[in-house]
């Protein structure tokens, strides 16, 4: 299934590159569809226009030391209560405007033009927050088999793949999704955490994988309340993880 997605994705990039070379004015911003005046340097990699790029709010400073959300204090009120199971979470940008639009366009409309943009963002976030680490292993958040077959790809895995290739890091998959949880879009913090409690389980080889790679970085697209990341972290600690941190595109 993942090989089929890679073939589809690479075919689309080749098609886009050919069209852009033959018809330079056909290159458009995947957010607002504004046409570019000049051919991009990398014609196979979509880019945002200046206005849409400015709309992306980077999460670099003024963030919680634990969960990475925007805050005026060193730690947000929620993290001060010690509610999270993971150690630290970091994200590339706030989940609104252009960032939210691109993630939803890829996940729900299968706009594959967006994928290389999100992959470059997750790599930038890793370099900014974890680039000095060379003993860490990446853990993509798993989808249920049914959901991955329906969508055709797991965005978390595609993001982890990009980071792994650029920084030469291993990807391990010690977790399995028992069942696809209900939509969390209308749930709040405690309700989300409760809903996620029994969604994940450890794979048969989880303990041996974690024994070889005890320092783990969960990779996902969005961190909202942290319910998904917390549930994954708890399972990973159960099989011997020494440290579990989180990296996402948006927060």
In short:
With 251 residues, the chain is α/β, with parallel strands linked by helices.
Looking at CATH, which topology would you report? Rossmann fold
Strand arrangement in the largest pleated sheet: 1-6-5-2
User: Overall mean pLDDT score?
Assistant: 86
Globally, the shape reads globular
Number of strands: 6
CATH-scheme architecture = 3-Layer(aba) Sandwich
Low-confidence stretches: none
What structural category arises from helix and sheet content?
Answer: alpha/beta
Amount of beta strand: 5-15%
Note the total helix count. 10
Overview of this protein structure:
- The protein is an alpha/beta fold.
- It has a single domain (55-250), classed as Rossmann fold.
- It has helices at residues 2-22, 50-54, 77-80, 97-109, 115-130, 145-151, 155-167, 189-196, 206-212, 227-238, and strands at residues 89-93, 137-140, 175-177, 200-202, 215-222, 243-250.
- The strands form 2 sheets. A 4-stranded parallel sheet has the order 1-6-5-2. The chain has a two-stranded antiparallel sheet with strand order 3-4.
- 36% of the residues are buried.
């Amino acid at each position: 299934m993942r090989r089929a997605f890679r073939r589809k994705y690479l075919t689309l990039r080749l098609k886009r590159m050919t069209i852009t070379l033959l018809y330079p004015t056909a290159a458009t911003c995947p957010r607002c569809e504004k046409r570019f005046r000049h051919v991009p340097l990398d014609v196979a990699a979509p880019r945002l226009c200046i206005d849409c790029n400015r709309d992306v709010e980077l999460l670099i400073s003024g963030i919680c030391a634990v969960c990475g959300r925007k805050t005026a204090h060193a730690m947000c009120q929620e993290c001060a209560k010690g509610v999270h199971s993971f150690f630290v979470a970091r994200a590339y940008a706030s989940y609104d405007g252009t960032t939210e639009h691109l993630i939803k366009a890829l996940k729900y409309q299968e706009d594959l033009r967006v994928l290389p943009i999100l992959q470059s963002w997750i790599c930038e976030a890793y370099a900014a927050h974890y680039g000095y680490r060379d003993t860490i292993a990446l853990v993509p958040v798993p989808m249920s088999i049914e959901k991955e077959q329906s969508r055709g790809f797991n965005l978390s895995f595609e993001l982890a793949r990009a980071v792994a290739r650029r920084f030469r890091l291993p990807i391990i998959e010690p977790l399995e999704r028992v069942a696809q949880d209900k939509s969390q879009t209308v749930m709040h913090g405690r309700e989300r955490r409760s809903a996620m409690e029994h969604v994940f389980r450890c794979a048969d080889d989880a303990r041996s994988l974690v024994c070889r790679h005890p320092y783990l970085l969960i990779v996902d697209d969005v961190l909202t309340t942290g319910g998904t990341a917390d549930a994954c972290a708890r399972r990973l600690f159960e099989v011997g993880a020494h440290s579990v941190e989180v990296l996402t595109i948006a927060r």
